[in-house]
Amino acid sequence: MCIALSTISSNFLVGGHYWISITSLAFYLGFFSLGMGPGAWLIPSETFSTTIRANGMSIATVMNRVTSAIMASSCLSLATILTWPGFFILLAIICICVAAFFYVYLPESKGKSLEEMNKYFADLTGDQSLVEAEMRSRPLHNEVDIS
Question: Which SS3 state, helix, strand or coil, does residue 111 take?
Answer without folding.
Answer: coil
